[in-house]
Amino acid sequence: MSENYDVIVIGGGPAGYPAAIRAAQLGLKTVCIDAWLNKDQSPAFGGTCLNAGCIPSKALLESSELVHRAQHEFEKHGISTGEVAFDLAKMQARKTKISRDLTGGIKALFQANKVTGLFGFGKLLGDGKVEFKGHDGKTQELVGKHVIIATGSAPVNLKIAAFDNDKIVDSWGALDFTEVPKRLGVIGAGVIGTELGSVWARLGAKTVIIEALPTFLPMVDQAIAKETLKHLTKQGLDIRLGAKVAGAKVEGDAVVVEYEQGGEKKTETFDKLVVAVGRKPYTDGVNAKEIGVAFDERGFVKVDGHYKTNVSGVYAIGDVIGGAMLAHKAIEEGVALAEQIAGHHTQVNYNAIPSVIYTAPEVSWVGLSEEAAKAAGFEVKTGTGSFVSSGRAKAMEQAAGTVKVIADVKTDRILGVHMVGPFASELIAESVLALEYSATVEDLALTMHGHPTLAETFHDAILSVDGRAIHGINKPRK
Q1: Which of 45, 201, 256, 400 is 20 to 30 Å from 182 at the Cα level?
Q2: What's the rounded Cα separation, in Å, for the pair 265 and 130?
């Protein structure tokens, strides 16, 4: 016998679970199906983000940064600890507990909002019908007026460096090492590669990051990207740009990687190799193509401006539709779609999506870089603020980094803010709000920031745009 719902969500990650919760809050009978199994075969909501990505990586980044600070910074504060040691097993246990606490929280939120949560697989059958197959193999037919595909993405597996889940691993595998590799190789110097490289480098691994592109972090304003590269290199990360991997193979207890850089063929040997070259949409087993859902040439589900596919009553959100593969972007799409289904008028501002790299110092940005703004035809003016002159940053022993503001000469509107520095992940929120409200440089120049705070550095950057910086050096006026 079929069970009827207003909304059926397939996928319980950052796109799916918020969509389910918001739909239920709006009075729609909702079910959320998720197939995730942890390595111990325990089911969990939250998708890659909570179980094998955003959250566990931040837990290890925090732990490893504390080790690094204890080893290199505490003495400057007058704190003596003796030789600093760490217990990797305890770090891993803490990381796992944090993830489990949060995924359990989703289950509790489902109960509080009257969302039916099911662990297993959802398969589209057409005409609003979905086959649910539990992990025990039992099946049930569900019928929904609205069906949402929110199945997320999976790591790209390179044929020339295929995962064996032992020596050559994806980002999830890199979060579960039981001992620190003496030599670690990472293919890909993007967000995931630099974060994972930072974790293990801080804990003692000699880490080499191999990046095919000649430019470091091309999506970031290049002044900020170059400064970030300088900081990471100083910390011991060996980042090799313009290095194209030709192949990787396991030989005994090692991984041998062959690559070409500057026209020269090179070889490196590692204990572990992490492949972090991006993610691809994951729709395996959903049966979307079979019922006629259209996909683009890269495997993303095609949707219109309201997340509708070409099949009536079927929608898609999150990583499966492309764009920025970020949890917060997926969350907002889930909420917006649920509200649209309920008859509300909502939208996501894709020009104000923040991005963060949780290295130390952190990197964050929103809106256009100077390079992108000029390419789009804007006449730009820029300003910078340095954490070197921040009293709060100096007190924290983290006085490194820069905030850069990019604005339109004609309208004074802020086009983008890119920064590297302490707690850049938190500081970027003010810039997101500025873009959301189409703020001008003058608008923010007139706002007051607490002293001493890290946020003052952003204010310095704003003032610097028009040569008004008090705590920084203004550019000579032409």
Answers
A1: 400
A2: 52
Residues 46 and 21: beta-carbon distance below 8 Å: no
**Residues in the chain, overall count:** 478
Could you read off the pLDDT tens digit of each residue along the chain, which spans 478 residues? 689 999 999 999 999 999 999 999 999 999 999 999 999 999 999 999 999 999 999 999 999 999 999 999 999 999 998 999 999 999 999 999 999 999 999 999 999 999 999 999 999 999 999 999 999 999 999 999 999 999 999 999 999 999 999 999 999 999 999 999 999 999 999 999 999 999 999 999 999 999 999 999 999 999 999 999 999 999 999 999 999 999 999 999 999 999 999 999 999 999 999 999 999 999 999 999 999 999 999 999 999 999 999 999 999 999 999 999 999 999 999 999 999 999 999 999 999 999 999 999 999 999 999 999 999 999 999 999 999 999 999 999 999 999 999 999 999 999 999 999 999 999 999 999 999 999 999 999 999 999 999 999 999 999 999 999 988 777 765 5
**Residue 278 annotated as lining a ligand binding site:** yes
Cβ–Cβ under 8 Å, residues 405 and 466 = no
User: Cα angle vertex 84, ends 79, 86, to 5°?
Assistant: 135
d(CA 354, CA 334): 17
Please check whether residue 371 is in contact with residue 218, taking contact to mean a CB–CB distance below 8 angstroms: no
194 is in an annotated binding site: yes
126 residue type, one letter: G
**Would the annotation count 152 as a binding residue?**
yes
Torsion from C-alpha of 116, 117, 121, 125, nearest 10 degrees: 20
Nearest to 33 by CA among 192, 148, 145: 148
Give the domains, in start order, of the chain with CATH numbers. 3-155+280-341 (3.50.50.60), 159-277 (3.50.50.60), 355-465 (3.30.390.30)
Instruction: Report the 10 Å Cβ neighbour count for 256.
Output: 16
Tell me whether the omega of the peptide bond preceding residue 422 falls within 30 degrees of 0, making it cis: no
Q: Per the annotation, does 386 bind a ligand?
A: no
DSSP-derived pairing of the beta strands 30-34 and 3-10: parallel
134 is in an annotated binding site: no
Please tell me whether 139 is known to bind a ligand. no
- Asked whether residue 82 is marked as a ligand-binding residue, the answer is no
Contact 390, 399 (CB under 8 A): yes
